[in-house]
Amino acid sequence: MAKRRIGILTGGGDCPGLNAVIRGVTKTAINRYGMEVIGFQDGFEGLIENRFKFLTFEEVSGILTQGGTILGSSNKANPFAHIVIENGKKVVKDVSDETMQLYEDLDLEALICVGGDGTMTIAGMLAEKGANVVGVPKTIDKDLEETDTTFGFDTARLVATEAIDRLHTTAQSHHRVMVVEVMGRNAGWLALESGIAGGGDIILIPEIPYQIEEIFRVVRQRGRFGKRFSIIVVAEGAKPEGGEQVINKIVEDSPEQIRLGGISHIIADQIERETGIESRVAILGHLQRGGTPTPLDRILATRFAVKAMELVEQKKFNEMVAIKGNEIVSVPIKNVMGRQKLVPLDCPLIDAGLSVGTNFGIKM
Ligand code: F6P
Question: Which of 95, 130, 94 is nearest to 110 (CA)?
């Protein structure tokens, strides 16, 4: 009898903990269920182009602590909108039927898709075409619906918090305003949580459009109380009231084309011009996505992996694993597709920030 076989891929932007999932899935599949595992390379690109490798104990040994993904990832590949060059021109093609054929030919019992909202949306569409899909949520943005958190977030929050701590001392020495820009796309989770952990004086998130006058007021007021420096933590997606987000780059081949970034420069320039206080910028960028995952992310990634394999064994497909409270559960992938979890205005952390005097760029 042929050996039972599953496939796994990591899609979208990488984050710490992906390798912990690959290891968790592979070891559980082999140890518990006697299955073999193939890993598609570069996300859905590997599935489209039939590029994969067999994942053995040796392949996944020692990767628990490594950042990135040993399989590679792509935030452009999509079987429903695959870009090919024909006669020197880019043409977008739906190759999902061919992809499904490959999935059938490989005799996969299931396909585990590790990714964010973009990956879950494609996974859900493949499920509609008949693939047995299980989703595992990752992103440093923590913006996936139906799960309290995602692995990768804790590590990014630690990197951002450490950066804010370091910037504090230099801001203090030079009596400067430091504007720290963190990632997160349209969600303010990373800015909010690292800002609270790092004691940011002002935290600006996309969900609360700011008034620049209020920022001037806070910086000046701190000066009057003898605090000649200020730390402003700004999410890359933050915007002024009545204004727009700052776009850093358009990635044409990507399903999600907009890359945000640069708002910190605008804010720092405005503060320096208006208040005369020297202002500097630190954009943390991809530093937040690299390096070894925290213990919390390793544990979450491992628990997600084990649960994903449990779902495969139970033939409970087209579900995404999730964490609710401290329980690992699963939810239908279709509940997650095309949605983003933003910071609600009644978030207890905003209230906690207000209690300790944090300003959110408007009077609240
Ligand atoms: O979704 C994760 C994320 O790091 C966002 O926080 C950020 O906006 C985006 O990806 C950056 O994408 P790229 O790696 O394509 O620059």
Answer: 130
* Residue 141 a catalytic site member: yes
The pTM (predicted TM-score) of the whole model is 0.96
Residue 175 falls inside a structural domain: yes
* Centre of ligand 1 from the C-alpha of residue 290, in Å: 12
Q: Which of 42, 141, 154, 201 is catalytic?
A: 141
Q: What's the rounded Cα separation, in Å, for the pair 93 and 355?
A: 53
Same domain, 143 and 83: yes
Domain span holding position 183: 154-289
Among 109-113, 172-176, 255-259, which is the least confidently predicted range?
255-259
Residue 3 has pLDDT above 80, yes or no: yes
CATH number of residue 327's parent domain: 3.40.50.450
In terms of domains, do 164 and 284 share one? yes
Ligand 1 pocket, 271 CB below 6 A? no
Does position 248 have pLDDT exceeding 90, yes or no?
A: yes
- In this prediction, residues 187-213 reach a mean pLDDT of 98
How many folded domains does the chain comprise?
A: 2
Closest CA to 201 of 279, 123, 141: 279
Q: Are residues 114 and 245 in the same domain?
A: no
Q: 270 by DSSP, 3-state: which? A: helix
d(CA 183, CA 236): 5
Band of residue 255 on the pLDDT scale cut at 50, 70, 90: confident
Judge whether 353 lies within some domain.
Answer: no
* 333 pLDDT tier (thresholds 50, 70, 90): very high
Structure tokens belonging to residue 338: 């095309």
